[in-house]
Design a protein that fits this description.
This protein has 383 residues and is of the alpha/beta class. The chain is built from 14 helices and 14 strands. The protein has a 7-stranded mixed β-sheet, sandwiched between helices. Strands 11-12-14 form a 3-stranded antiparallel β-sheet, with helices on both faces. Helix 5 runs parallel beside helix 6, helix 10 packs across helix 11 and helix 12 crosses helix 14. The protein binds pyridoxal-5'-phosphate. Pyridoxal-5'-phosphate binds next to helix 3.
């Protein structure tokens, strides 16, 4: 007999669901081509635009899958195989964009910046000046390191050099300003399972109409990777292929909660407060860890902490936290391998996204502090 395990999810997605969203999974199923399905989708599209503060000349696409599906679709739809793409990376997810581009035979150049830091706009401009690039990819919130970047500045540069900009907003959308209105990226991508506080299953793309029209002229966009087809479906309150109706019911309810109940601005403020509570708490635990990211680059949705020497490794801490009812993050594996190779201690991440309250976060941090202190050498490594 399979035994279910119920843990509070403190990993950087998927996030724990609010009880209203758990219940929304039991709402009646519907036909997505039927008039009721169109009403559900129309409500979703309208509220997504409000959460994004979307300018009028942008369109929305909903794609089955997760954030990576949206990123791949953007590469396939907005670039062609003749294009050179500049992939700006501040961590593992910036690298992922480059992998997606090369796996579709695009010519790429990766421009990487130090872990724990944001973009160096001067260096990016230096590359763009070469005139070689048709598109640039970037990460709004690098979940591996806990860094939020200046995408508005980077997109503005791209526009100045006539380069299309594609932004990964997977781990920040719904928890902070999307910056679409200010940066006007060609395409901004996100997914359901992080700051929107929903299960995984849909990628969301916000695409400038100008970029949609350009995409229509490109060949080889694929079918389910074709944002143009998805957007044509959206314009009729449809999706291109059959969506997960349970998730759409949950999404319809959750977006109404965000827009009409919590408020988009209030949600952003709550995430900013969750960040400051977490960072304050880290400063109070200097025996065991330190902040990995400085104040100006700190993400509002995930805080990365570096363990001090003498503290048990993240796996031991995670086991002890599991016994307390929490599933925690042990740091991004690839990042910790790279940090170890550079002689640095490992990092762990404290995610604070979705519908998490300050009180829930504080309870979690208290438990984590107790465990980390008990695992430290000074206290005899009790775990
Ligand atoms: C910043 C970022 N980009 C992309 C992804 C990949 O998204 P998904 O796992 O939804 O495919 C993630 C997942 O954690 C992420 O944090």
């Amino acid at each position: 007999m399979f035994e279910t395990e119920e843990l509070a999810l403190f990993i950087p997605g998927p996030v724990g669901l609010h009880s209203t969203i758990v219940q929304a999974a039991t709402l009646p199923g519907f036909g997505h081509r039927d008039q009721y399905g169109k009403r559900v989708l129309s409500s979703i599209y309208r509220n997504l635009a409000l959460v994004a503060d979307l300018p009028d000349d942008y369109s929305i696409a909903l794609l089955n899958g997760s954030g990576t599906n949206g990123m791949e679709a953007a590469i396939c739809s907005l670039t062609s195989s003749a294009d050179n793409i500049l992939c700006v990376s501040v961590g593992v997810f910036g690298d992922l964009f480059e992998q997606l581009a090369t796996s579709h035979c695009r010519q790429t150049k990766k421009l990487s910046f130090a872990f724990g830091r944001g973009f160096d706009l001067e260096a990016i401009e230096g590359e763009l000046q070469s005139g070689r690039y048709a598109a640039i990819t970037m990460t709004h919130n690098e979940s591996s390191t806990g860094v939020a970047t200046d995408i508005a500045g980077c997109c503005e540069l791209a526009r100045r050099y006539g380069v299309r900009s594609i932004v990964d907003g997977v781990s920040i959308f719904g928890g902070a300003e999307s910056q679409i209105r200010f940066g006007r990226p060609s395409c901004y991508l996100t997914a359901t399972q992080k700051c929107l506080g929903l299960p995984a299953g849909l990628a969301i793309a916000f695409v400038a109409n100008e970029a949609v029209e350009h995409a229509r002229t490109l060949r080889g966009r694929g079918y389910v990777t074709d944002l143009v087809r998805h957007i044509d479906a959206t314009r009729e309150d449809q999706t291109l292929t059959t969506p997960n109706g349970t998730l759409l019911n949950q999404m319809r309810v959750q977006l109404e909660r965000i827009v009409d109940f919590e408020g988009v601005e209030e949600r952003k403020q709550r995430h900013a407060e969750l960040r400051s509570v977490t960072r304050q708490w880290v400063r109070g635990c200097e025996d065991v860890f330190e902040l990995f990211v400085g104040e100006t680059d700190a993400s509002p949705t995930v805080t990365t902490i570096r363990l001090k020497s003498g503290v048990q490794n993240p796996r031991v801490i995670a086991e002890a936290m599991r016994a307390k009812g929490y599933l925690i993050d042990t740091g991004h594996k690839k990042l910790n391998l790279l940090l170890a190779a550079a002689g640095s201690n490992p990092v762990m991440r404290v995610p604070h996204m979705g519908d998490l309250t300050v009180a829930e976060l504080e309870r979690f941090l208290e438990a984590l502090k107790t465990v980390c202190w008990a695992t430290s050498e000074k206290n005899g490594n009790k775990y």
